[in-house]
Each structure stands twice: as structure tokens, then as C-alpha cells.
Design goal:
By secondary structure, the chain is α+β, with helices and mostly antiparallel strands. Helix content is about 35%, strand content about 25%. It contains 5 helices and 9 strands. Strands 1, 2, 3, 4, 7 and 8 form a 6-stranded antiparallel sheet that branches. It has a 3-stranded antiparallel sheet with strand order 5-6-9. Helix 2 crosses helix 3. The longest helix has about 35 residues, at about 1-35.
Length: about 200
């Protein structure tokens, strides 16, 4: 009887110890997950959401070297975004032009700034009534300096604005951009502009 009672007590202790150990493991796992840094892939995707790159060359469909000029990414939608994000540090990428049905291939140089250098993004209605909404981004001090340096050397040339892997515009630089403010996209609906601004806003 004594041995049986002792065995029962030991089993009870064993169960209490097991539950306490399980609770400790769960608590430890939760706290370590909260303290872990964001995966590098997530950071790369955020940075790659916006890229400004110089336009080195435009290869029209009629050009002899059109077939030989291979696109960096041939996907659409999210796969395109992820593919171009993964090429963030590439010194050269090739994307289709900004027009929806464009077959022109744009050869782009190394990124000037990216989404990690966006201090804030704001959606605003365009100045002309009924013309839609625009998304403005204000760059960090480092991004502003990088853009100023690049545009000083690129007056008369084009800079491509790439959003989620797609060239949305490629304006010609008329003068150095010194204020760190860039219009990313315009003529959007209010909903689309607000959604894009939230997507690009680093804050």
C-alpha cells in the first residue's frame, strides 16, 4: 500500500513537472518570436516596392536587338513584384515600358533610391478637378541626397519609376531634384492612390 501510494504521488509530481515545463517552453517560444528581426526577404520586398533607376536604353519592338535583349522578369502581378524586388541590387535590369501594352524594353541602370528610403507617402487629389489622384513620396535625407546627385548628372535623360516591379513612368529630368519629393503615380482613383500610399509609406 505504501509503495502504491508513493507511486501515485510520484506520478502526480511528474505530471505537474511536465505541465510546468510545457508552459515554460511555450512562453519562451512566444517571447523569442517577438524579439526576432523581420525576415530579410520581407525587408527586401519592402525596399523593392519602389525603385528609381536611370534609363540607359530603350529598345523598341522594331529594333534588331529586341529579341536579344532579355527581360529580367517575365512574370505578372505578385510574381513580377517579387522577381524585381529580388533584383534590387542588380546593376542592370530590363523591364517592359510603362504603357499598358508596351513592347518596348527599358534597360535600366543601378537603383538610385528604393522603398527603404521613403520617409512618408501621401495620396492627394490632382490640381485639375476630376483628373484623379496622385501619390507623392518624401524621401529620407540619404534618399534626397542620392536623388539630387543622380538628377544633377541626368538632366535631359530619363529616370524610371518602378512600383511593384512595373515601370509606371519614365520622366525626363528637366532640372536637379533637390527637395526629396517625387510624384510616383498620378491619374489614379482615390482608393487606388490611398492604397498605394499606404503600401509605400515606410512609417
Amino acid at each position: 500500500m505504501v509503495r502504491r501510494a508513493g507511486a501515485t504521488t510520484g506520478t502526480g509530481r511528474d505530471h505537474r513537472w511536465a505541465w510546468w515545463l510545457l508552459a515554460l517552453v511555450i512562453a519562451s517560444a512566444c517571447s523569442s518570436t517577438e524579439d526576432m528581426p523581420s525576415p530579410s526577404g520581407s525587408n527586401a520586398s519592402t525596399a523593392g516596392a519602389l525603385q528609381l533607376r536611370p534609363v540607359i536604353e530603350i529598345v523598341p519592338r522594331s529594333a534588331a536587338d529586341w529579341d536579344a535583349t532579355q527581360l529580367t522578369c517575365t512574370h505578372h502581378g505578385e510574381p513580377l513584384r517579387d522577381c524585381v524586388s529580388s533584383a534590387l541590387d542588380a546593376p542592370r535590369i530590363v523591364l517592359l515600358g510603362p504603357a499598358e501594352a508596351s513592347e518596348d524594353k527599358y534597360v535600366l541602370g543601378p537603383r538610385i533610391v528604393d522603398g527603404s528610403e521613403v520617409e512618408r507617402a501621401i495620396a492627394r487629389p490632382d490640381a485639375a478637378p476630376g483628373s484623379g489622384w496622385s501619390v507623392f513620396v518624401h524621401l529620407t535625407a540619404d534618399g534626397t541626397a542620392a536623388l539630387e546627385t543622380a538628377t544633377e548628372a541626368s538632366v535631359g535623360s530619363q529616370i524610371a519609376i518602378v512600383v511593384d516591379g512595373r515601370i509606371v513612368s519614365a520622366p525626363t529630368v528637366a532640372a536637379p531634384i533637390t527637395g526629396g519629393d517625387v510624384v510616383v503615380e498620378n491619374a489614379l482613383t482615390e482608393r487606388a492612390a490611398t492604397s498605394l500610399a499606404m503600401h509605400l509609406d515606410a512609417g
